[in-house]
Structure formats: C-alpha cells, structure tokens
Amino acid sequence: MFLHDKKLLHEVSVERPNPQYAALLQEQLGGANGELKAAMQYLSQSFRVKEPKIKDLFLDIAAEELSHMEMVGQTINLLNGHELGYDQVKVGEIETMTMTGLTPGLFNASGYSWTADYVSVTGDLPADLLSNIASEQRAKVMYEYLHRQIEDKKVRETITFLLEREEAHNALFREAFESVREDGSNLDYGTSEAASLYYDLSKPDSEKNPAQIKPNPPSFQNPLQ
Prior knowledge:
With about 220 residues, the protein is mainly alpha-helical. The chain has helices spanning about 20-25, 25-30, 35-45, 50-80, 95-100, 125-150, 155-180, and strands at about 200, 210-215. The radius of gyration is 22 Å and the shape is globular.
C-alpha cells in the first residue's frame, strides 16, 4: 500500500520561467534514465525478492523515486509558466507540451513516450542489483549534465538534492550486492580455471597464443575449494 503525503520530499521553486530547460528536464521525468523508470524497475523487481530486508529496500527506494518524479514534474510546471514559450525552445521538443496543455508528460526530451522497455528485471537478485547500481549511476550522470545547463540557483538546488539522493541509492544497492555473494548467479563465479584468466589481447605474443594472465583471485573464490 502506498500513501500520498501532499508535502514534497524536498520543496522546489524557480527564479523565473524557462521553457527551454523544462523541455530538457523532461528527460528525467519520462526518459530511459528518469525517475519513472527507476520507480517501476525497483517496484517490479521487488515482487520476486524473498529476502525481507532487500525487498523493503527495493520498495522504499521505488517509493522515493515516485516522490522524485513528483518533484521533477512540479519543477517542469514552474519552468513552463502559464504560456507556451515556443520561441524560447531551441533544443528539445515542444510539440508534445502543446498537446498536453503544458502538463508534464510521460515522455523524454525528444517527445518519445515512456516505455516499459526501459525497465530491467531478471529475477536474479545479483543481476538486478547490478542493474540498479548502473541505473543510479546513469541517473547521477544525467543530473550532472542538467546541472551544468542551468544558472537558476533554485533549480540547481533541486537538481543537487536529486543528484545526492541518487548517490545515496547507489551506495545502498552496492551494500546490498555485497550481502548476496552466495546468492543466485554469484554462486557460479570462480568455479573453474576459465573464471580466473584474463586474456591480454592488447599485447598478444607474436609467437604464441595471446598471453594468459592470472589476475588477483576474486574474493568470490570457487565455493568447492
């Protein structure tokens, strides 16, 4: 069950309308690395998780991502103002904003509709956690890009908050991954000679096969040893 609190997780505001930036910010509302994608991915993954603590982690972060989506949507609203500034949008997509009456929509900065194809669910806990770590890292990169494109101090404050929350989620998923070394696909790591070889194909030996180098043994050693 989800409950809606009318108070935003972090209050948002803008110094002035900026339709150009509103069009760009749509990427974090309905894009491949946006807040809706993250919320749906973690929620969907949680359905199969058996470990209570990790299941709660997925659900808690999914719920927070929905609150981030709410923040992004409200920021887009404020940046759009009350009139469609078609002549102010040089980069991004403005037609979709016209069709929605300036309502922030489930589409990216190019006007492409959000799709469930963005969501990654494998049913394997280690694989899903690695996917989530990558998702948070990509979201962090997107917010860093967006931060550089705006001088509005109030918008930057919102972007900074969201960026730092992505960092927190990344750390939590990493910690969870460290706790499942003996779970799912992790059990198959390091079980044979092939799992401990690195082929140095950048500097092949002209007289022999490519050099086979044994790197430092991974911490997930062969469980049979």
